[in-house]
């Protein structure tokens, strides 16, 4: 069986460096390696609505932002099918069938949902759609029989739940669907990039992000404010690497070539860390280097974004074409699903004949 790659993002804002190191960078590599039968990247607007039901315009506005981010990092619509979740009604249908294969208690145990519930304040109570979104996410993955899902660590419980649902489906109805595997970033620090303020995660709601579309000036200002080591008061003081956002970002981004280009005093990050811990290396020097490294990475992304921004109707056309392609795949899978579930009444000549005979002989 071939390799089918699928992943996606909620359209609740522009994408940031956490998305980039956690998944986007890997997607582009996977795309360019070409070792797959099919690759899908989609905008999860239905999922975004599960906690934004009263703010559909936010979702609507951010579809194009996420699409521009995708194209600007180098996802190529001739290689990857880019689509919008809600444009594939089969996903909602599959979600309904999956609902019967999951218990309320199992959903309550999902650690990602637990964390998100703690972070959100659902005044009117938790929407059923939010509570059940892991089921909808399982349908997102299963509709195309995805084998491989490049995503961050926070998506692991979602993948586990998807595998359980698929297993249950196949056990009851026969082998139709495929159990996917998550593909985590290989670099440890990329599993979960901390926010600029030192909190555990870069996240729009915490306001601690560097966005892919930030200008060079914005990147500079943000990095200058980044959290480092509160005990490192004077340059001579020994510094700490643990929890130091600037050094963590360098772990995620800096290459030895960057040192040759921007900071030839050191060969690599190990030497920098060693000096920093010993004392005598100031935060500002590290920050200046990080600004150079980030802007070098982000500049081609910004330039590509600007090109696509000049032809927004074309970006929507790309999403429309991708959605049509995805829908064909979904229709095929749902046909198999209905057949396996024995709810394909009108296609089932045997059924009609058997029922007819039953009543003729009555
Ligand atoms: N839950 C993901 C996020 O919060 C988005 C998503 C929805 C997704 N469906 C998916 C990711 C399927 C991977 C596979 O960003």
UniProtKB/TrEMBL annotation:
Reaction equation(s) it catalyzes: tRNA(Trp) + L-tryptophan + ATP = L-tryptophyl-tRNA(Trp) + AMP + diphosphate + H(+)
Superkingdom per UniProt: Bacteria
GO biological process: tryptophanyl-tRNA aminoacylation
InterPro entries linked to this entry: aa-tRNA-synth_I_CS, aa-tRNA-synth_Ic, Rossmann-like_a/b/a_fold, Trp-tRNA-ligase, Trp-tRNA_synthetase
A GO-annotated cellular component: cytosol
Molecular function terms from GO: ATP binding; tryptophan-tRNA ligase activity
EC annotation from Swiss-Prot or TrEMBL: 6.1.1.2
Entry keyword set: Aminoacyl-tRNA synthetase, ATP-binding, Ligase, Nucleotide-binding, Protein biosynthesis
Record keyword Nucleotide-binding present: yes
Entry similarity comment: Belongs to the class-I aminoacyl-tRNA synthetase family.
PANTHER family: TRYPTOPHAN--TRNA LIGASE, MITOCHONDRIAL
Protein name: Tryptophan--tRNA ligase
Protein species of origin: Prevotella koreensis
């Amino acid at each position: 069986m071939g390799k089918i790659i699928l992943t996606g993002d909620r359209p609740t804002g522009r994408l940031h460096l956490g998305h980039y190191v956690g998944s986007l960078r890997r997607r582009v590599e996977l795309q360019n390696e070409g070792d797959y039968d099919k690759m899908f990247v989609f905008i999860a607007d239905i999922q975004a609505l599960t906690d934004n039901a009263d703010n559909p315009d936010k979702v609507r506005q951010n579809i194009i932002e996420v699409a521009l981010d995708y194209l600007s990092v180098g996802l190529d619509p001739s290689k990857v099918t880019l689509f919008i979740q809600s444009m594939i009604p089969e996903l909602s249908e599959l979600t309904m069938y999956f609902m019967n294969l999951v218990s309320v208690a199992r959903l309550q145990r999902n650690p990602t949902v637990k964390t998100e519930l703690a972070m959100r304040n659902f005044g009117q109570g938790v929407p059923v759609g939010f509570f059940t979104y892991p089921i909808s996410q399982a349908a997102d993955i299963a509709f195309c029989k995805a084998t491989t899902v490049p995503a961050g660590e926070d998506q692991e419980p979602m993948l586990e739940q998807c595998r359980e649902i698929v297993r249950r489906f196949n056990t009851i109805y026969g082998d139709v669907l495929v159990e996917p595997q998550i593909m985590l970033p290989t670099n440890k620090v990329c599993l979960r990039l901390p926010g600029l303020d030192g909190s555990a995660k870069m996240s729009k709601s915490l306001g601690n992000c560097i966005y892919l579309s930030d200008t060079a000036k914005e990147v500079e200002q943000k990095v200058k404010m980044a959290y480092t080591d509160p005990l490192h008061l004077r340059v001579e003081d020994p510094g700490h690497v643990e929890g130091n956002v600037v050094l963590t970002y360098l772990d995620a981004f800096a290459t030895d070539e960057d040192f040759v280009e921007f900071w030839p005093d050191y060969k690599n990050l190990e030497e920098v860390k060693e000096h920093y811990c010993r004392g005598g290396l100031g935060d500002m020097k590290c920050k200046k280097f990080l600004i150079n490294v980030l802007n070098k990475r982000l500049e081609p992304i910004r330039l590509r974004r600007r090109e696509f921004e000049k032809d927004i109707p074309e970006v929507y056309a790309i999403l429309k074409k991708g959605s049509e392609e995805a829908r064909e795949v979904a229709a095929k899978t749902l046909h198999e699903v209905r057949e396996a579930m024995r709810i394909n009444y009108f296609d089932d000549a045997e059924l009609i004949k058997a029922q007819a005979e039953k009543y003729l002989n009555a």
